[in-house]
Amino acid sequence: MNLLPFFLAFIGGLLISIQGLLNSAGSKIIGIPALIAWLSIIQAIPPLIYLLNRQPVIGISQTVTQGFKWYAVSGVIGVIVVASLSFSISKAGALSIFVVLVLGQIIGSALIDQIGLFGTPIKPMNGMKLLSILLIVLGVFLLLKSEPSANSNQSKSQHPANNEINQTVASGNH
Hints:
It contains six helices and no strands. The chain is mainly alpha-helical.
């Protein structure tokens, strides 16, 4: 079995957790709409440079017109993901939010595999897959139950970086 795709997925998962924290901290300072705008601009630069240097097989104008439905929907989904994570992480913490996020990805992926959405291979649900998903749901439930309540002083982080962000927001220098 080629382990490279799994290793890359793991690295991607680690980077997503860091990106979520950065987005959450940044959104406290500049706001979620500004954060999303700047992320979009920064994320667009490398592929635009690539496209300008290497013409797509169907040409740039065809890429724009034929790809619109795909990147428009994906872009809206991206905005929703970044906004919801940026808001949620600052309220409930990184671990709780990312565990629930991964659970959503697992359930969504199981549905995609079941119906073969957008031409992906159909991989029907079976007893072992269902049991695995139920164990993950149980794990998420147990993790969330282990979190201190929202009213508890334990849930308030006193990390110096959080103090700096909170002071920046409170002083209005954002």
